[in-house]
Amino acid sequence: MAIALAYLLSGEEIYFEPKGKIFLGELALNGELQPIKGVLPLTEQAMKLGYKEIFVPIMNAEEAALVKGITVYGARTLKEVIEHLSEIKRDRKGNPLEKERPKIKPQKPTQILHKDTVHDIDFSDIKGQESAKRGLEIAAAGGHNIALSGPPGTGKTMLARVFSHLLPELGNDEILEITGIHSIVGLLDDSLVTEPPFRAPHHTASYVSMIGGGTNPKPGEVTLAHKGVLFLDEFPEFEKRVLEALRQPLEDNIVSISRARGSAIFPSNFILVAAMNPCPCGNKGNKDKICICKPNDLDRYARRISGPIIDRIDLWVTVGNVDYKKLSDEVVRSERTHTIKERVRRARLMQEKRFKNAKRKIKTNSEMNVKELGVFVPLSPEVKELLNDSAERLALSARAYHRVIKIARTIADLENSENVEANHILEAIQYRPKVAN
């Protein structure tokens, strides 16, 4: 559209004042305007650069109108834009020499409305697995990464999918940020993404599709899961290069991509939910079935996940087989999703209040660095001694040591406790992997 208007303007076939106006849209051979990707971030940038009016295809207008401070016009054809822009010829007295041309009405500002989504599965529908549910509640409350390990068919995938329903509602700024990311990639079905995203790539996913990249760098799954959940089922089966590339987003909440044509930094602040079998055959530790894996197979399987990646996952939860009586008993029902979500919401509010005056912009316990841990999570001498003794016995790395403190702080928040007590530390330690780091 911009090229066509510039050509007509330079050829003096139309006349209008282009200053302060920007034009986005692909032009079809029949003159219709086709929608484009990334309209939201482009409109935001146009507003920041001082443009007053933006013309976009009608199908992009609602998305562009999310940005305040700039007038949005949505057009179906190039002819509509020309008729809107072209000035009417007048005689010396100022009288019009031709008919008034129709004008495009400005798009009304798009309101951000939170949808009340009805989910198919509730936490109460999942029988048993109380320890796993507890771990997921802690992960949601503090923004911690979690790994679920257990035999096939124990409900790991179902737990991971229901987990995203525990996360608090997104703020308006977060909605705009996530919507912009999905718009760039072309995954925007509605005009807004109002719920935390849930991404579940297959374990055969390539490095570029997971981390991002390409000739012109584009976001990958770690960025599409920003402010939401990245679920990696069959975790050890992912390509080793992909797993190792998770180090930066898990630690810094960003991913840096460098290519010949330039580099890009994408946000990737997500909660990782990893699911895995205890061994290649899946029956290690299963009371009902015999593990047929050889020692070499077990060693090879364990080495697929490196120590640094293990350190970056805060909670390791075992998901065992459920007793058949619980599966068939209609009376046995656990807490509903909204009950757990309310506790998560209260814990998040405590964290928001705690970090209100922090120098960095952080919202959850998992985002604290070492310096902030000393400021916001002071430990009594008795609790510190207990933690040090446990860390020495388990041979925790420095990173794992600090993550135990963060988890303990989240557990204390869920109990509405002002201080981290010994029982919070002891529970947090239970979620470290049962092997030396």
Short key terms for the protein model shown above:
about 425 residues; alpha/beta; Ribosomal Protein S5, domain 2; Rossmann fold; 3 domains; five-stranded parallel beta sheet
Verbal overview:
The chain is α/β, with parallel strands linked by helices and 437 residues long. It has three domains: 2-85, 2-Layer Sandwich (Ribosomal Protein S5, domain 2); 137-333, Rossmann fold (3-Layer(aba) Sandwich); 338-437, no CATH class. It is 40% helix and 12% strand. The protein is built from 19 helices and 14 strands. It has helices spanning 2-10, 39-48, 58-64, 78-85, 130-142, 156-163, 172-185, 207-211, 221-224, 240-245, 247-252, 295-302, 307-312, 324-328, 337-354, 370-376, 381-394, 398-414, 422-430, and strands spanning 21-23, 26-27, 33-34, 53-57, 71-75, 146-149, 198-199, 212-213, 218-219, 229-232, 254-259, 262-267, 271-276, 315-318. It has a five-stranded parallel β-sheet. Strands 1-4-5 form a three-stranded parallel β-sheet, sandwiched between helices. It starts with a helix and ends in a 7-residue tail after the last helix.
